[in-house]
Write a structure and sequence with these properties.
The complex is a heterodimer of chains A (301) and B (288).
Chain A lengths: L1 H31 L9 H21 L3 H6 L11 H8 L1 H34 E2 L3 H13 L2 H14 L6 H25 L3 H9 L4 H12 L1 H17 L2 H5 L8 H4 L4 E2 L2 E2 L1 H22 L3 H5 L5
Antiparallel strand pairs in A: 2-3
Helix pairs in contact in A: 2-14, 4-5, 4-14, 5-8, 5-11, 6-8, 8-11, 11-14
Chain B lengths: L3 E2 L3 H27 L1 E3 L5 E3 L3 H7 L2 H30 L7 H10 L6 H12 L5 H8 L10 H29 L3 H9 L4 H29 L3 H6 L11 H11 L3 H32 L1
The chains are: A mainly alpha (301), B mainly alpha (288).
Chain lengths: 301, 288
Amino acid sequence: MSVQQDTLARTSERPEAEQRQIDKALARRMRRRGDESKFWWLIPTVYIIFLMLPIYWLINMSFKTNQEILGTFSLWPQNPTLQNYAVIFTDPSWYKGYINSIIYVVMNTVISVLVALPAAYAFSRYRFLGDKHLFFWLLTNRMAPPAVFALPFFQLYSAFGLIDTHIAVALAHCLFNVPLAVWILEGFMSGVPKEIDETAYIDGYSFPRFFVKIFVPLIASGIGVAAFFCFMFSWVELLIARTLTTTAAKPIAAIMTRTVSASGVDWGVLAAAGVLTLIPGAIVIYFVRNYIAKGFALGRV
Amino acid sequence: MDKTWNNKAWFMVLPVLLLVAFSAIIPLMTVVNYSVQDTFGNNQFFWAGTEWFEEVLHSERFHASLGRNLIFSAIILLIEVPLGIIIALNMPRKGWGVPVCLVLMALPLLIPWNVVGTIWQLLCRADIGLLGYSLTKAGISYNYAADPADAWFTVIIMDVWHWTSLVVLLCYAGLVSIPDAFYQAAKIDGASRWAVFRYIQLPKMNRVLLIAVLLRFMDSFMIYTEPFVVTGGGPGNSTTFLSIDLVKIAVGQFDLGPAAAMSIIYFLIILLLSWVFYTVMTNYDAER
């Protein structure tokens, strides 16, 4: 009896163990998603090293004096100095550039997202006369080459007396940021079931109240991503920003071209200014890191 | 999702319409104006008809920069898309590696474009740059300011550095949306690595790849700032792409007529591409 029990127990145990082993192998396989190699990490690592190399060189240079940059070749600063950063933080014509950039970028982000919200809702929920043509037209503005617009923009904003103001750059950047914001938000909004709207209306919500109290919190991540992309494209754009400003609202990126003086290029200060332009980007990426991929797919994965 | 027909939705679109129209239509009309007029100065314009368009369409210079730009875009796509797919396939899917990879890889995308140029200038200069100095020391003659081949190499590797991450992030977004069950089924069927890629991962990435290809094509087609900072369009005209050429004509020589005509031709090319993009995208949406 006991022997029989023993064998019985074993037979029922063995498939279970086998099953567990198969499960484990499967789980391992799933973790690696069909990757045969143990060296999968090699490719991303090499790629990241390739990405970081120029940035490392920039940071390295920013801590060197100009003599050291031109005189000796070294992989790290021999006499690390904060002199280059001191130049930027003490000279208003330098640090004002950062403030200018931040001001028009934030203005642009706020304007773009605010006007894009209702439009994106309209595109995601309703059909109306000419909707597809309108959407396409918006898209073409995202694709428009800034070089085409630089000169006419200058004349347009001159006519309105807006040259060298932050609002001019913020409005000009709306050309490509508003369509982008509409597009991303529309993608995220289409993911929210329409029943939610209908239920809210039945519950007696007015449209503005529903929109602000219920709908906006639902697509908060989408708004974050849209804001991030507006920030990004306004922050990296230079051609239009430079054309529309002379001194009072000049972006940092345009001021950087100033380092060329009679005594040659001040490489150290140029590098330090470059390093400082990386920081806002790095900060905002950190906040949207979980949504960034979906955002690049314009909310349509 | 079936949408209700409601023309009142126009009111919601109105702010966007006004804002973008202000920034798009008025400048565009200025360009159209210039493209059909000639001037002897003093703000005296007269009708020139299609003269400028004919001039631009028959000019060697326009053909050359258009050709250069098309070759550049083709090379960029051929390198960045396969590279982006390979990197995305090998990215970690969970754990601490994911945010690290995403943040580090997205970093080049957030750098102002002329700073990208500056970074590469600092890296590639033969006297002070890591790359330029190393190559020269290794006995390879490398000077992006004098040799057109080196200039092209620099501009291309700079763009690969700057934008491959976009393809990676898009493909990654496509890959993480594949349910585990797909891989399990493939494992049970004994599918090879290639089969998994060809029949599971690639079809799932179709859509994002399409976005990646078209965005990369259009952005490389209007590239201006980065090559302008590094090579200034030179040596000679070897890296003068369409936008650089256009700005040279419009702002450098102040030839408004030809510049405007060129802008419109340029814009029409982009419009055609956008239309292809939009049609393909909406067809995808309809299929879903």
